[in-house]
Design a protein that fits this description.
Elements: E1 5-11, E2 19-25, E3 28-32, E4 34-38, E5 42-46, E6 52-56, H1 61-77, E7 86-90, E8 95-98, E9 103-104, H2 110-121, E10 125-127, E11 135-138, E12 143-146, E13 152-154, E14 160-161, H3 163-172
Antiparallel strand pairs: 1-2, 2-3, 4-5, 5-6, 6-8, 7-8, 9-11, 10-13, 11-12, 13-14
Length: 173
């Protein structure tokens, strides 16, 4: 078999920030995803298909992973239209793939951000990290969306994980 190598770089305009790198060697396609976030708690990449790939790491990764999945499933069950949908779960590797809710906003007024997080509470969830870094704009939906549910709780039951819970657990260990 003839060995071939081909590299393609293309921007994906509707996402505004994703980059696609495809390497073709010996008939195999391998996609290299664009890294958006690499912190002590998670690594986030956007795949060539626009999906968000998140790998949880660091302290309490298992708890944070389980909470994000639980909250997103709850919001999906309650038909919340402005949060990501779970596309794939891999609890063994603490790996989650979700739909894409657009690009993180450059700026948003405090009033508009507060209103958005209040709207989330109408769906029964309190976001434990209500800051603009967790707000995106989706041109597809024509609206602002909320992401990153590692620290969120369900209002009715109190089920979930807060930043304070995590800090308390880290101090005890």
């Amino acid at each position: 078999m003839e060995s071939r190598e081909c590299n393609l770089r293309a921007s994906i305009p509707r996402m505004g920030f994703a980059l696609l790198d495809i390497s073709l060697q010996s008939g195999r396609v391998q996609d290299i995803m664009r890294e958006l976030k690499d912190t002590k708690r998670a690594t986030v990449h956007i795949g060539f298909d626009g999906r968000v790939h998140k790998r949880f790491q660091g302290p309490s990764a298992q708890l944070r992973y389980e909470n994000e999945v639980r909250i997103l499933r709850y919001l999906e069950h309650h038909a919340c239209p402005f949060v990501p949908r779970v596309m794939q779960e891999d609890p063994e590797h603490l790996y989650l793939v979700t739909s894409n809710c657009g690009a993180i906003v450059d700026s948003i007024s405090d009033e508009k951000a507060m209103k958005l997080f209040k709207e989330l509470e109408d769906y029964g969830v309190i976001h434990g990290d209500p800051f603009p870094r967790n707000i995106t704009y989706s041109p597809h939906l024509g609206r602002f969306c909320i992401i990153d549910f590692e620290f969120a709780t369900i209002k009715d039951t109190g089920e979930g994980l807060t930043i304070e819970d995590l800090e308390r657990m880290e101090k005890q260990s």
